[in-house]
Automatic annotation (TrEMBL):
Gene: rpsE
One Pfam assignment: Ribosomal_S5_C
Gene Ontology CC entries for this record: cytoplasm; small ribosomal subunit
GO biological process, alphabetically ordered: ribosome biogenesis; translation
Protein name: Small ribosomal subunit protein uS5
Domain text: The N-terminal domain interacts with the head of the 30S subunit; the C-terminal domain interacts with the body and contacts protein S4. The interaction surface between S4 and S5 is involved in control of translational fidelity.
Purpose: With S4 and S12 plays an important role in translational accuracy.
Membrane-spanning intervals of the chain: none
Organism whose genome encodes this protein: Aquisphaera giovannonii
Length: 165
């Protein structure tokens, strides 16, 4: 095994991949229907980094692979506080709204499928969530990541405002 392959395996072991949805698309051609697949994937390291990716291919495994590759290109950093989030926040994308609220230790992740994949990949252990508006999985994932990127710690806010705590 070469050093490049070892590095790739180490990187892959650090990141958790979650397939949120796989959709089949049909194109009608002269001989009948030609099917292709779309895969929505969420990737995170469980320590505050998370991203989503979207891949399209004629088979499911290459679509998922492309989604993972796409996700690694747009990784985002998230501020977490001891297994939960620092404050309540609303993320928006299109008609989708996602409300994330901090929860006490032991609560777990109370979330639907798409939002659950995002918060678990980011490493959040205890959180309450509610989605409003659209139930489109892609828009919910984008709204959840938008909410997570809005999180700020007390120290960060104090520094931005120029005050001491």
């Amino acid at each position: 095994m070469s050093s490049d392959a070892r590095d790739r395996d180490r990187d892959r072991g650090e990141w958790s991949e979650s397939v949120v949805s796989i959709r089949r698309c049909a194109a009608v051609v002269k001989g009948g229907r030609r099917f292709s697949f779309n895969a929505l994937v969420v990737v995170g390291n469980g320590r505050g980094q998370v991203a989503w990716g979207y891949g399209k291919a004629n088979e499911v495994p290459p679509a998922v692979e492309k989604g993972v590759k796409d996700a690694h290109k747009q990784m985002k950093r998230v501020n977490l506080r001891s297994g939960t989030i620092p404050h309540a926040v609303v993320g928006k994308f299109g008609a989708a709204r996602v409300l994330l609220m901090p929860a006490v230790p032991g609560t777990g992740v109370i979330a639907g499928g798409a939002v659950r994949a995002v918060v678990e990949a980011a490493g959040v252990k205890d959180v309450l969530t509610k989605s409003f508006g659209s139930n489109n999985k892609l828009n919910l994932v984008k709204a959840a990541i938008d909410a997570l990127t809005q999180l700020r710690t007390k120290d960060e806010i104090a520094r931005l405002r120029g005050v001491t705590l």
